[in-house]
Structures are given as structure tokens and as C-alpha cells.
Amino acid sequence: MADLIDLRSDTVTKPTRAMREAMYRAEVGDDVYGEDPSVNALQARAAELTGKEAALLVASGTMGNLVCVTAQCRAGDEVIVGQTAHVFQNEVGGIAAIGGVLTHTLSDGPGYVDPDAAAAVIHPGSLHAPGTRLICVEDTHNRAGGAVVPLDVLARMRQVADEHGIRIHLDGARVFNAAVALGVAAEEITRHADTLTFCLSKGLSAPVGSLVCGDRAFIDEAQRKRKVYGGGMRQAGVFAAAGLVALDEMIDRLADDHVTSRRLAEGLAEISGSEIDPETVRTNIVICQVESPVCDAKALPGLLREKGVLAGYNGTNRVRFVTHHGITTGDVDKALMAVRSVMASG
Questions:
Q1: Among 46-55, 179-188, 278-287, 290-299, where is mean pLDDT lowest?
Q2: Residue partners of 104: CB distance under 8 A and separation at least 6
Q3: Do 162 and 62 share a domain, yes or no?
Q4: Whose CA is closest to 46, among 32, 59, 35, 57?
Q5: Domain containing 121: what range?
Q6: Residue 198: helix, strand or coil by DSSP?
Q7: Is the pTM for the entire model greater than 0.85?
Q8: Burial of 8 per CB tally in 10 Å (0-12, 13-18, 19+)
Q9: Torsion angle, CA of 311/312/315/319, rounded to 10 degrees?
Q10: Total of domains in the chain
Q11: Buried-most residue among 19, 168, 203, 242 (CB within 10 A)?
């Protein structure tokens, strides 16, 4: 496995030497009592970066989204969400199974729901129908190939939410990728949302953890929900210390991943049977259509593995590659050689 070029996800990143050193030296305490100094420092830093009053460390992005939705919705409430959004497609129906929250899905083909389409289906609820309480936005959008939500779309969605007295939750697992791609501070994105999550364990390369951010009253309720879901961790400062290094040292370098992903996309576009428009690749996720008589998308990852490259089948003739810390331009070129070889021979 060590010799493989792993392009399945940016969750496969390893903590840096600085992170490992910080973990070794971390000051710790019982976080459930609010006494872990490293966790408290990480939460304060996360709130600062996102322009929110407070933040809460949780185990994962999935837990973060579950906490955020259920802290703002009652069982039977409705959430508007994109039909390919991570919270709908990839979180085992948690908001419904655990929170009893209904989803109203809308098309999100470009990586976001059209704000006016969302406005058209918002309703206050009645004796017979659930009321809309929340809009979920994903930025960057995983299944749309790491698409970045335009700032004017976020601003319009904020306007829609305010007009109807509802809230916005941002699944910002890779929000710093979006900020780097747009050339803005993350707060320019997050200010349009009432609550958000972001992951430390993807492109930022920390070993574990996500942050939930919002106003103080929301964080108080989110902390209760975290406890309900078994997420009250004790000496969590051991990995919070790595998260602090991630926020201080790993955000700007996300631009390197965007360069390697664009190189990968441009190379894939030149391979017969692989269809992708490199202009659509804004961040670190590359999804190509496989239309080849010698190799289908479902078989491609297995064939690539035999040549030392790991990729992921993304459904319906699509294969996903994700660049991240540790993936060099040389790795990308080797991966492209493997794809050419497989697509030529099947």
C-alpha cells in the first residue's frame, strides 16, 4: 500500500511531522467538562476563521452535519437539500433515522441548489404538512467534482432564507478549498450561513476531527446533541493539537492540490475514452466520465490498482480522483500513464 499512488480521497492524508510533534506535546484535560486547553484553543481558532461566536469539536463531518441539523430542527421538520448532497447521499440517512427530519431534495447539478427554486418550495407548515426550517448548502460540492458555490449564489440564498425566517447550514467539509479557489478568506463564504461544519481530516491533513461553528446558543444545543450521539470525548487535545497545526500551516497549501488536480484533469481529457472538461475543475476533486469499449468505469479502479494507482468508482460511468498533501506532479503523471495503459488495453 505504501507504494501506491492513492487518489481515492483526501481523507487518506497522513499527519505532518509538525502535527505529530504537537500531538506528543499537547496539553490535555477533560473536554466534556470544557477543561481541555488544546480543544478550547482549536475551537476558538475555528470560530475566528469562520467569523462565528463559537465552535465545537466533533469526531467527523458526518457527525457535524447530524449535530447541526438536529440542533436546529425538530422531528417532522423539513430541510431543503440538493439531491446529490453529501448529507443526503452519503450519511446513511442519519438526519431522518436519528433526527426524524424530512428532506426536500432539489436539483443541484452545478453543485448548488438554485436559490429561487428553494424559495418556491419553502412553506411554514400546517396541520397537514411539515414546515421548512433549514436549507443545507455544500461547498465545495463533492459529487459535482469539487465545485465551488459562487458568492452571489450564497448571498441570494441568504436573502431567501431571511425573507422566510429560516436558517442556512453549510456543509463546508472542504470550505477552505473553496476559499482558496476564490481567493478570499473563508469568512467571505461562511458569513452567509448560520451554522457550518468543516473537516480537519481531509485536505488539511489532520488525523481526525471536524468543527461545528455558529452562534453561542446554537453551540450550547450542539454540545447536547454531541453528547446524545456519543461524541463527548475526553482528552481530545491529543488530536486537537494536530488540528491547530492544520489551521495554521495547511490552508494556503491547498492551492498546490488544485494545481495537481488541474494537471490530472488536463491529462485525462487527452485520453481516448475519458471525458472531462478541465475548465470545470476548480479544487482538488476530478471526476471523469468513462466511455470506452475496452474498459468501463466500474472496472477501471481495479485495473488501475494493478498498476499502482488507487481511484474510486463514482457511479454511472464516473471515476473520481482526489489530489491531496503528498501527491506530487510526478505522481499525477504516473497516474495518467496508468490510465492511458488501461484504457488502451482494457
A1: 290-299
A2: 78, 79, 80, 81, 121, 132
A3: yes
A4: 57
A5: 13-249
A6: strand
A7: yes
A8: middle
A9: -20
A10: 2
A11: 203
